[in-house]
Amino acid sequence: MKRTYQKLTRPGEGLDKLLGELEREIMEIMWDRGQGSVRDVLETLNASRPEAQRLAYTTVMTVMARLAEKGLLRRARVGKAHAYEAAESREAFLARASQEIARQLVEDFGEVAIAGFLNVLERVAPERLAQLRRRGQSRGEP
After folding, report:
1. 3-state secondary structure (DSSP) of residue 74
2. In what side-by-side order are the strands of the sheet with 73-78?
3. Among 3.40.50.2300, 1.10.10.10, 2.30.110.10, 3.30.450.40, what is the CATH number of 4-86?
4. Most buried of 33, 52, 84, 133, CB within 10 angstroms?
5. For each of the chain's 142 residues, which pLDDT tens digit applies?
6. 124/66 Cα distance (integer angstroms)
7. What phi and psi values does residue 57 have, to the nearest 5 degrees?
């Protein structure tokens, strides 16, 4: 099984490391809109592309169906088409993905991974650590 943290070797930042380029573009649209059809997303994607680089309906439909299979989008049949919505917010997705990566690292590397996390945290600005602690406490985490 391919580990989630292997994606971290992809170039880019944040979402670019977790999703393919078109997946990320589609999810950004869905997070901004909340819901939409394949046609809605296709029109938004193609509006910013030169004519020679416009996407086909079937390409966007396939990627959105795969995002639904991965649990990032929810879909419901409406007539002959599907209506899609983001399954969770951008922030919730990033939190879940980062927690899964951390869990896999600890599972694979044990105390070495934990020591690595602590080493990184020692270099985080105290104000930032305090902010993170408050965030964790507001969610009921110790």
Report:
1. strand
2. 35-37, 81-86, 73-78
3. 1.10.10.10
4. 84
5. 566 666 676 777 778 888 999 999 999 999 999 899 999 999 999 999 999 999 999 999 999 999 999 999 999 998 888 999 999 999 999 989 888 888 989 999 999 999 998 888 888 888 888 887 887 777 665 5
6. 37
7. -55, -45
